[in-house]
Specification:
By secondary structure, the protein is an alpha+beta fold. It contains nine helices and seven strands. A hairpin with a 4-residue loop joins β1 and β2. The longest helix has about 35 residues.
């Protein structure tokens, strides 16, 4: 029985201690405390949810200010330092909130700019108290000691360097999304880019151009009178160039690299007809100084056929390669 009473009292004592701990965190010891700022931020966001127009934005603005002030206050009361630096973990959290407040939006709370400026804001927040002396009610500006200036400069400079590297990552990521054909190139001679996945052997957009262009060309040539087809081939440079620009605009419109592709034909005589090579030529940057291009060959030959009147005429028959060929170097000259 005594053991049972002890267990019951132990449970009550644990609950009492847990309640006291929660109460200490949630109930501010005085009006001027970090809890007050957090509650004001929550209250502001609730009000902004109910408001409309510019009033909503103003209330939400103050809500962010209260949240940043309350978080900064709480995390600097008993600061935990980032290992190897004098930067408090609270400054990292506050820097993130400041960055989200400055560069976030309703659609994307965390944007690339938020991540880029996060280290720099955290370093600046860490450095600000070094320029202030005194307490909350009696504070004044001061110049840090020489030994403090050195560590402040090192911290801010290293954080700015980290921000630069993060920005470089986002720039490269944007380049590869807007210019995906660069992924087919080699980066062996690069001093700061390391390929971590299997390289793409053939640029996808170059293949797309030829795959979309081929049926259009086939439609304009197949089963047409041979004399018309020969005239078409004489004017192939202009015709294929125009069709190629339309295909590029339609299928590569969302990529910036659409301006770096050019379509040209090459026509050659054979014993039985013609060879029409459709070329998608990359004119953008490349590790190969002569660039590269993709080719799809079509064989055009005359065949006998009957027209609607039953008379025999000569029409064109066209057959194209199933796959596009990737060829490093400059395209052959036009005949």
């Amino acid at each position: 029985m005594n053991t049972l009473f002890k267990d019951v009292f132990g449970v009550f004592k644990f609950a009492e201690g847990l309640y006291a701990g929660i109460r200490k965190v949630l109930v501010p010891p005085k009006a001027y405390s970090w809890q007050t700022f957090i509650y004001l931020s929550v209250f502001s966001w609730i009000l902004s949810y109910c408001a409309t127009g510019y009033i909503k934005d103003i209330i939400a603005f103050f809500g962010w200010l209260f949240l940043i002030a309350g978080t900064a206050w709480y995390t600097t009361e008993d600061p935990l330092r980032v290992p190897g630096t004098f930067m408090p973990v609270g400054a990292v959290i506050t820097g993130f909130l400041v960055s989200v407040f400055a560069f976030g939006n309703q659609q994307d709370v965390i944007t690339p700019r938020t991540i880029v400026f996060w280290p720099t804001f955290s370093a600046l927040i860490t450095a600000i108290p070094e320029f202030i002396e005194g307490n909350d009610t009696d504070a004044k500006a001061r110049i840090p000691k020489p030994e403090d200036r050195q560590r402040i400069i090192i911290l801010v400079a290293s954080s700015m360097l980290l921000s630069c590297w993060i920005q470089f990552y986002f720039v490269m990521d944007n380049w590869l999304r807007q210019y995906p054909s660069l992924q087919a190139d080699t980066f062996k001679r690069s001093t700061f880019i390391v390929r971590t996945e299997e390289p793409i052997k053939i640029p996808k957009n170059g293949v797309v151009i030829l795959e979309k262009l081929q049926p259009i060309v086939v439609e304009q040539i197949a089963q047409r009178p041979w004399s018309e087809v020969e005239k078409w081939l004489l004017d192939a440079k202009q015709r294929v160039g125009t069709l190629g620009r339309e295909v590029i605009q339609k299928n590569l419109g969302k990529y910036e690299e659409k301006e770096l592709w050019r379509v040209e034909p090459r026509v050659a005589n054979t014993k039985s007809g013609y060879i029409l090579d459709l070329l998608s030529i990359w004119i953008g940057p490349s590790s190969n100084p002569r660039g590269y291009y993709l080719k799809k060959s079509c064989r055009i030959e005359p065949v006998a056929a009957a027209n609607n009147s039953g008379n025999k005429i000569t029409v064109a028959e066209i057959e194209c390669d199933r796959l596009s060929k990737f060829i490093p170097g400059a395209p052959p000259p036009q005949q």
